[in-house]
Fold this protein.
Amino acid sequence: MDDRGGGSFVAVRRISQGLERRNVYHSSSSAEVVAGSAAWLGRGLSCVCVQGSHGDARPSFDLTPAQEECLQRFQSRIDVAFDSSIPQHQEALKDLWKLSFPEEELHGIVSEQWKEMGWQGKDPSTDFRGGGFVSLENLLYFAKRFPKCFQDLLRKRIGDRSVWEYPFAVAGINITFMLIQMLGLEEVKPRDIVGETFLRLLSENESAFDILYCIAFKLLDQQWLSMRASYMEFNTVMKSTRRQLEREVMVKDIASIEDMPSYSLLSQ
C-alpha cells in the first residue's frame, strides 16, 4: 500500500488497559474523517497510532536492578487513567488551560472552549481515555518547560500552514501513545535496542520521557511542514516522526536525552 495513503493503524482505547488494540483503521476508507470544522479535525484522529515496523523476532535485554525499578515506576505512571471526578485531575486540566490561553478565562471543565485547543468536543476527558493521565502530564510539562515552543505549535505560528490542520491536543495524545509503543515501555523489559537505550536515559533522568515527548511534538510539526501535509496525511507524518526519533535515540555517544540532535529545536 502506498505510504501516502496512510497504511494500517490501530485505534487505542487506553494505555492503562494493556495497550489494547481495536478496530484496524485505514485512513483512505472513512469519509467521516473530513466531517468537521475547518479550524480543526479531530474526529477519526484520536489515538490513531502507527503499528511497529519491525519484525516479531526481537532480542532480549537484561536490566540492572536500578533500570527495573525505573521501568516499574514509569509503568505505574502510565497505568493511571484520567478521571475527571478526581480533584487533582480537574486542577491539572485547568492548569493546562491557563498555560495555553492565559488571556482567556475557562468557563468550565466541560466547555466549547476546549475545541480551540484541538479537542474533539467540549469535554476533554473523552479524549484522555486514549492516553491516560500521563498524556495530560506530558502536555503540562511541555507548556511549562518550553512555553514558547508550546505556544508556537498550539497557535500554528510557524510555517506555511495547511487549510486542514492537525488538532493540537489530540495529536499530543497520539504522540504519548506512539512513544510508549515505540520504546516498548509497557513490556517487562525492552524488546529492542531503541527501548534499551532509552531506558538507560530514563534511569539517568526521570524526565527523559517528558522531554522526548516535547522533541517528538516539535519534530512532528517540522515533518508536517516539510511534507506540506494535510489532515489525511497525519498518520504518514507520524510514521516519519517515529523513524526520525528511533534514529536519534541511537546516535552514538548520547549520554542524556538533551544530547539528541533535535533537542535544540525546542529553544528556537
